[in-house]
Amino acid sequence: xxxxxxxxxxxxxxxxxxxxxxxxxxxxxxxxxxxxxxxxxxxxxxxxxxxxxxxxxxxxxxxxxxxxxxxxxxxxxxxxxxxxxxxxxxxxxxxxxxxxxxxxxxxxxxxxxxxxxxxxxxxxxxxxxxxxxxxxxxxxxxxxxxxxxxxxxxxxxxxxxxxxxxxxxxxxxxxxxxxxxxxxxxxxxxxxxxxxxxxxxxxxxxxxxxxxxxxxxxxxxxxxxxxxxxxxxxxxxxxxxxxxxxxxxxxxxxxxxxxxxxxxxxxxxxxxxxxxxxxxxxxxxxxxxxxxxxxxxxxxxxxxxxxxxxxxxxxxxxxxxxxxxxxxxxxxxxxxxxxxxxxxxxxxxxxxxxxxxxxxxxxxxxxxxxxxxxxxxxxxxxxx
Length: 384
Prior knowledge:
- This protein is an alpha/beta fold.
- 29% of the residues lie in helices and 24% in strands.
- The protein has helices at 11-21, 41-50, 69-76, 92-106, 190-200, 230-237, 242-252, 260-271, 320-330, 360-363, 370-381; strands at residues 2-7, 30-34, 83-84, 89-90, 112-114, 117-123, 126-131, 135-144, 167-169, 181-186, 205-212, 217-218, 257-258, 275-279, 282-288, 291-296, 301-304, 306-309, 347-349, 352-354.
- Strands 1, 2, 5, 6, 7, 8, 19 and 20 form an 8-stranded mixed sheet that branches.
- InterPro entries: FAD/NAD-bd_sf (IPR036188), HpyO/CreE_NAD-binding (IPR038732).
């Protein structure tokens, strides 16, 4: 039986794992279960897919315990243009290699098990985690570090076209990105912006059309830095009403926004005639002779050979289909929004901990991002 089982091997799970393995837990006592072959595989795949060059988060946000670790790493490995802007946003390739080196140093690969979890139950003094193929492993403590990318969000009008080869979601890794013709990208946030910028520079693609519901919203980060410390969190923790906490989280997140430098890059591509920007609601969509037509509420019609949705993930409880029986069995406390009510140490009940999206009612608006992963890892490691 393991002392700790972490379900999810993305940024969140690996951040918790590396912290636990630092003089807290031995490699033999820890198991990480993830459907992918390697740590942070989904993160690396998606960021590479959209052509991201620099992260949105600052240099102190990474999986190592020392906040200045990435700065030191850039100097010791002699990276050119390692950081960008006033907040020292790191190069993606450097951030990823630093993460992988920290993961290797901690011994995460030794603890890795590729598999899909489909059941969880509590029995006397241990947790039983069931995986596909009816494999069962036992642990004293479990961390739910589930990502949210498994459930891509599709607008209602897309439903009848989802089966078409011409329509895909950026999270649908089974469908390759188009490399020719006229491409429509739907979305107004960082993912859509990076993808539009990347594809508009490909010579084999005729044109790129970025369609968004609203004008481009420019924000340095996906939430105000005040949510990292007492400036906003003091009042947040004084709020006992979880319905109000959920409202504060929703208000704090700069959803569908992008950084100024990405916005300027898109404008540059637009001036050069490689990118067309559209703003408005889609009233009707048609698929005619292999071409997609989007009719907008301002009368414009956007045509393309392919449509890529960069509309994010569903705002859903990750893993709920197999976590719900545990909630019912143990009467685990949940807020009106359905998400866990946990202690300050992120313990839900009886050695069951949460990180990432499932911890956001305790961590706050930054819970899903790298800064949230660091906070979760620190709190959970204190219980090791």
